[in-house]
Amino acid sequence: MMPSGRQDFSAEVNKIMYAARRHMRRIREAMMVSVLTACASSASADDAGRGIPPWNPPSKPVLLSPSNIENWSFGGFGGVYNHGRLIYIEVEPWRVSGDWGHGYMIAGNAVYKIAHLPYVPFDLELDLSVADQFGRENTIAFGAIPEFRWKWFPWNNYLYTNVRLGPLGASYTTGLSAEEASDTAGNHTSRFLNLDVFEWTFAPTEQSKWEAFIRNQHRSGIFGLINGVNGGSNYVNLGLRSRF
Q1: Are 165 and 147 in contact (CB under 8 A)?
Q2: What is the mean pLDDT of residues 197-211?
Q3: What is the CATH number of the domain that holds 186?
Q4: 31 assigned to some structural domain
Q5: Is 155 helix (H, G, I), strand (E, B) or coil?
Q6: Domain range enclosing 78
Q7: pLDDT tens digits for 26-41?
Q8: Cβ atoms 239, 217 nearer than 8 A
Q9: Averaged pLDDT of the chain
Q10: Are the CB atoms for 100 and 109 separated by under 8 Å?
Q11: 153 burial class (0-12, 13-18, 19+ CB within 10 angstroms)?
Q12: What is the DSSP code (8-state) at residue 223?
């Protein structure tokens, strides 16, 4: 018979994997709806009258220069710590509405648009952030993460909506957070951890110089792969970003 500790760990891993598979299935379904709607819009000349935006990504990668200020945007955001699971915060946020902690974040970020990717409406970006985390203790967090920005939804002529996904990045804090440690196995955390960022962005039009966004900023050890940290932290933020 498997020891009780191993059974508990195996059950926990199975729950996380089930939630992750459900999360990825919902993302695939949303993108498939976008793709099918785009194909329908391309096939019908009357779609413009119904307000469906065109599907027109480039046929080859378009690299953008970091020396051009128009390829940069700058924003600020702030939020509150949430003790809920990452998968629930991003997919079923109503399940974590009672899990707010006593940690807070005020941050700024710079986003460099690296390239427009071919065939699909994805941009590749680099997100650089500095955050003041305070509440139970004060610490400064530095982050760098590549992000993929999905730019097409069928309602984008009414409210220009994007999704930004970045599962693998780097995060370093100047101190250890007790709030973060409370959501890790054995209350063990580290200054250096993986950074995971998920955003919904909203703007009046694609040409707008401003966008509002909802951002979950997550640090973790990727199931113990980084400095033996199993678990991590989540800050749910609201922000505003401008481009030139």
Answers
A1: yes
A2: 97
A3: 2.40.160.20
A4: no
A5: coil
A6: 60-243
A7: 655 555 555 444 444 4
A8: no
A9: 87
A10: no
A11: buried
A12: T
How crowded is residue 229: how many other Cβ atoms within 10 Å of its Cβ? 24
Phi-psi label, residue 180: left if phi above 0, alpha if psi -120 to 50, beta otherwise: alpha
Alpha helices in the chain (DSSP H): 4-43, 86-91, 178-181
Query: pTM (2 decimals)?
Result: 0.80
The number of distinct structural domains making up the chain is: 1
Query: Is the model's pLDDT at 189 over the cut of 60?
Result: yes
The residue among 80 and 87 whose pLDDT is bigger is: 80
pLDDT band per the 50, 70, 90 thresholds, residue 244:
confident
Could you tell me if residue 34 is inside a domain?
no
Listing DSSP states for 79-110 in one string gives EEEE-S-HHHHHH-GGGGTT-EEEEEEEEEEE
78 backbone dihedrals φ, ψ, rounded to 5°: -150, 155
The answer to whether the CB of 232 falls within 8 A of the CB of 204 is no
Condensed to tens digits (0 to 9), the pLDDT of residues 120-177 reads 999 999 999 999 999 988 999 999 999 999 999 999 999 999 999 999 999 999 999 9
Q: Which two tokens stand for residue 113?
A: 């648009």
Q: Which of these, 209, 213, 222, 235, lies nearest to 102 by C-alpha position?
A: 235
Distances (CA, A) of 10 to 2, 14, 18, 45, 189: 10, 6, 12, 54, 22
